[in-house]
Amino acid sequence: MKKNIIENIDNQILDLISQRNSLLSEENLFETFDKKHYEEISLKERNIKNKKKIIKLFKLINSFENTHSIINKILYLGPEGSYTQDAAIKKFGNENQFFSINSINNLFEEIKKENATYAIIPIENSLNGLVNDTLNAFLKYDLTAVGEIILDIHHTFSSNCENISEIKTIYSKDIAFDQCSLFLEKYNLHNIEHIFVESTTKAAKLAFENPNSAAICSNIAAFNNHLNVMFYDIEDNPSNKTRFFVLSKKDEKKEKNIDYKTSFLIELPNISGSLIDFLQIFKDEKINLYKIKSHITKGISNFFIEFDGHKEDENIKKIFKKYKNIKIIGSYKKEIDDI
Q1: Beta strands of the chain (E only): which ranges?
Q2: What angle do CA 91, 94, 95 make, to 5 degrees?
Q3: pLDDT at 22 over 80
Q4: Quick one: which of 183, 172, 171, 293 has its CA closest to 238?
């Protein structure tokens, strides 16, 4: 009897999902209904304990029967279960084909050869700064950033053990251990064996294979390796974010009524005032600069700069024509001012 009731409820859920997504599709609102919407509107009056899981559920529902989505081949850095894969799914949904690539240079090579439509690459972390390998690859390859993704980095403590007292070994990246030091100390886990591995995904795999062990890893890595998540969000700093670029061989057309961000690298002569003189031009053109960071490659100093606007804007084109040593990384829809 209860089975029939459950089946009836399931059918109602599927019908409601179909109706909901038809309405979203008609108004092209799939991108609008994001995490903020569910935190501020859909969930604010409901007594739901784990709202993060509900938000993930709604994101999955958004990708269900989305008739506007085109199946693309998407590459991402790292093994399956990496945070970069999480960013790729956040950007493109679950309906595309995703493939892991083991290095940033190989990601650029695959896009250069048109073996995939897009690649997801990390560009910076709020705690650790810019990813130099990504900047070096942009200097080497004639490819374009056509989008950005901001991902909150949350670590889980995952294991096959039932009790935390059974754990004798913890696997993870050295950075992940550092980012979760308060949690480890709180549960007296800082004195047991810590084994550093090259990725949190590998940490999850090793924790699954070895008894009395655990991993500091992403939620998706724990799920893929059949681990039980004992603790969520164990990082010391809740504002830890990583920013990713969407890499493409083909540039995308500028659209109206879109807030664009442009990123570029410039090599300036090592003489007094060269940077100030360059930045003064942006002030004269009333262009808002909000990121300037130095980047040194083989002893040559470049500056990574970002501003509000599109590279096809007339005042921007005037600046870029004047300077030869500019490498335009891309103009894309702005998701955030800075992380």
Answers
A1: 73-77, 97-101, 118-125, 129-130, 144-152, 156-159, 169-172, 193-196, 213-217, 228-231, 241-248, 260-267, 289-297, 300-308, 326-333
A2: 110
A3: no
A4: 183
Measured CA angle at 217 (ends 152, 103), to 5 deg: 80
The reported pLDDT for the residue numbered 329 is 97
Instruction: Give, in order, the Cα–Cα distances in Å from 241 to each of 33, 155, 235, 339.
Output: 21, 12, 11, 7
Both structure tokens of 186: 């709180």
Q: What is the DSSP string of 224-281?
A: HTT-EEEES---S-TT-EEEEEEEESS-----TT--EEEEEEEE--SSTTHHHHHHHH
User: Would the pTM count as exceeding 0.85?
Assistant: no
| Structure tokens belonging to residue 188 | 């007296």
Task: Report the alpha-carbon distance of residue 189 to residue 267 in Å, rounded.
Answer: 47
Cα separation, 197 vs 170, whole angstroms: 10
Helix, strand, coil shares of the chain, percent, nearest 5, are 35, 25, 35
Contact present, 140 and 108 (Cβ < 8 Å): yes
Bridge-partner residues for 16, per DSSP? none
- Residues 140-158 pLDDT 10s: 999 999 999 999 999 999 9
User: Do 256 and 313 touch, CB atoms closer than 8 A?
Assistant: no
- 215's CB contacts (< 8 A; 6+ apart) are 157, 158, 159, 170, 171, 172, 200, 203, 204, 206, 207, 221, 222, 225, 227
Phi, psi angle pair for 150, to nearest 5°: -110, 125
Q: Which among 176, 6, 13 is positioned nearest to 83, based on CA atoms?
A: 176
Question: Any idea what the Cα angle at residue 28 is, between residues 26 and 34, rounded to 5°?
Answer: 125
Distance CA 119, CA 250 (A): 12
